[in-house]
Amino acid sequence: MSDSGTTPTGVGAIVKRCEGLFEDLDFSAVKQWKAAHPGSKAIGYMPIYVPREIIHAAGMLPVGVFGGGDQLEVIQGDAYYQSYICRIPRSTLELGLTGRLDCLDGMLFPSICDVIRNLSGMWQILFKDKYVKYFDLPQNYDDATGGRFYIHEMNTLRDDLARLAGRPVTDEDLGKSIAVYNENRKAVRELYAYRAQKPWQAPTSEVYLVLRAGCVLPPEEHTALIGSYLSECEKQKRPQRDNARVILTGAFCEQPPLGLIKSIEMAGCYVVDDDFQLIQSWLLDDVPVEGNPLEELSKAFLHRSASTSSKYDEKKSDKGQFLLRQVKTRGAEGVIFAAPSFCDPALLERPMLQEILAKHKIPYTAFKYAENTGQMAPIREQAGTFADSIKLWSAA
Amino acid sequence: MNAVAAVKKEVVKEDAMLLQKELINRNYRELATAHQDGRKVAATFVPGNLNELLMCFDFARSLPETNALQNAMRKKSGKMVLDAERDGHSEDVCTYVKADLGMMLAGEKGPTGDPLPRPDVLLLSYTGCFTFMKWFELIRQKYDCETTMLHVPYQGDGKVSPSMRDYVVKQLKDRVIPTLERVSGVKFDIDRLREYMKESAKAEEDLVHVLQSAKQRPSPIDGYFGAVYYIGPIFTAFRGVPEATRYYEVLRKEVEDRMRAGKGPVTPEGDHPGEKYRLVVEGPPNWTSFREFWKMFYDEGAVVVASTYSKVGGVYDFGFRHDPDHPLESLAEYCLGCYTNLNFPQRIDMICRYMDEYQADGLLINSIKSCNSFSAGQLLILREVEKRTGKPAAFIESDLVDPRYFSAANIKNRLESYFQMIKQKRTAH
Description:
Chain A contains 14 helices and eight strands. By secondary structure, chain A is an alpha/beta fold. In chain A, helix 6 (143-165) crosses helix 11.
């Protein structure tokens, strides 16, 4: 897959381009990619994780669909959901029903919660001409059990996409795509490490947009974009503030509005780690390109992947360890639990994580949002108070 | 005297209902003394419950959803939910979970007032409901219980593949059974499992006859409110127990007698006043006002002839039976086939089939705030079923065990309008 785009220079220009991609609910970048690659297909995926390498190896563009954000007026989508269901399925349906996702030839719905699971079946009914797959992820982490099942799931996806592509997806194709995504993950890791080190140089409201561009750009282009952003960040010195260093967690599916991220930063917090788009950092290190590609992807998933609430913790002692490590390695001073309203995984997980943080004397605060939350004052106030209290405690 | 008080005064129960009540109460008594009797306690969920397997290790069995609903029917769950929310649990999440946590916070007394001991093992059958996983993680976090996970893949493609079945069987062999052996100190005996499964299959056969009796006019049973009692033993701690098999024999005979006599269902106020509307219902019932809810139906002459909730702990009416000749594979098939593990097209097909085979006048969806597994997307089910059957569908909202979400006046109004709609539709044809 070639890199057809040109990477803009200057932090402002890069961020502006990313913002354009983020705000474009018509997925023009996907359409442009398809126009530049006649006959090629694009496959959408929802949070939390799918092995994008398989889509890429089939010569297709993986496209992250993270709902409609705060700019989309949801009319048709609301007609399918009760008031007590989160917003991402309704805005995603709105995108589909208004033709904005027509450029996608298929959609993958990974196992994350019952709402997204059920949306997979709704998609089968409402978009009969599209490829739709519920992509099950194992909750058993033995190679011979969960691994075998997961490899079978991946093989089914590989065969399905090969049929769509009209050509086989070989191990060699997969190996090359794994290498491409290793580069992308490495760039994402570097971006996160840089932000943790100098959060004033790479504010989260920008980092978020740079990452979000990876939802619609080919991975090669996205990797280059991250590289450009990082080198441009170093050139432009920005003032360092006495902000509180916080981890933001719970926002792995329905995304907060950009204004909310900005509000947290304006309130005096440096977000030094987050779980906004976990797919991009889900696998924690490189996937070996030698050997059987699906086995290697499986091992990476089972043994070297991020923890989140939709993934089972085998032992009580495992609970919260990933978050504690994030706090320690990023030098965070507190944790913000930001969960979408009615998000079962995040909200059920929260009391367990809070208990663990309390035991470790790590301060936290919590609030809920929706992707179209418009009233930022209360959040700014809460985040500001939290940042102040951290500063007061650390000074004491 | 208000209507609710009147209902309380003269509750009529079939013999089978009384038997069922005795079974449930006996189980709570067994749980209360399990530890002093030297027995270990296992907790597991209704969908995908492996009762026969747990019995192989002599576990006393506790089902947290049943505990929550029993508390709700006894009007105890409201405080439990509030206590859990005060303890830090979100108002947005499942009230079964919060009622369970609230019950434990209040001193670990079960619905009958008997002590409910902490489980020695949590068998996390992750079947058809994401919340189950977090629920047992929460219990484990608080009470440090041993937990064994059985991940049951979802039927996303509308079928059970050999890979899915093998995955479940392998987990049973490599994880679940060794853990249960270790916790209980009892060695697994597959022949014992086969014996229990023979009992299960007999009971399942009788249950299907009972549920399918509703194809008759008038229906001798209510396939939702009445079925809740009928499924009690087989969906909980009694599938595979000879007493449960006998219960279903008695129940089947009772229902056949009613059929022969041309009688309708038994309601809490006696015989049904006469079948005017035949409905299929999708979604669990509300438990906090169960009898009041039921009364809204029979007062108007409505009978539920089939429901999806009565398949939540196992779909038996399309042929599945526990198979003693292939015990582990059969347990896997059972878990994979529970209603909430079916994908949307399968659920819609099933409802349309019920509408046809049970000659229903319409579909009613009781949408439960707590239960995303059932509820997310139900409005599409409503549209599709209306489109495919040409029959009217209606939508009401309530909750499982949170009394704050049962608005009797709203529900009654909606039901009355719906029955009017069915009537008008009939007149028009």
